Amino acid sequence: MPKLPVFKGKELIKFLEYLGFQVTRTKGSHSRLKSEDGRATSVPVHGNKDVPKGLLRKIIREDLEMSLEEFTELYSKYRGNK
Fold it and tell me: Is position 56 within any domain?
């Protein structure tokens, strides 16, 4: 199993925007993102803290509807394009 990258909230939002998600609203420290195909997720932005691993796994599997392998592959492509 590939090792998951560590994300800050703002970094994860930028990566999700690269994947086609758009921020629909922000309430407090949580941003809600939605894609055109109907998938949606919430990302906490708590200052400079990392997104917890369990929450990241839940976002990937349930909200983004992709495998951890697909996610890490897309993220490595994203990091290469930066």
Answer: yes
Q: Tens of pLDDT along 8-64?
A: 999 999 999 999 999 999 999 999 999 999 999 999 999 999 999 999 999 999 999
Helix, strand or coil, per DSSP, at residue 43 = strand
Give this prediction's pTM: 0.91
Of 49, 64, 52, nearest in space to 10 by CA = 49
As for how many domains the chain has, the answer is 1
Helix%, strand%, coil% for the chain, nearest 5: 45, 20, 35
Is residue 10 within a helix (H) or strand (E), and if so which, with residue range?
Answer: helix 9-18
3-state secondary structure of 45: coil
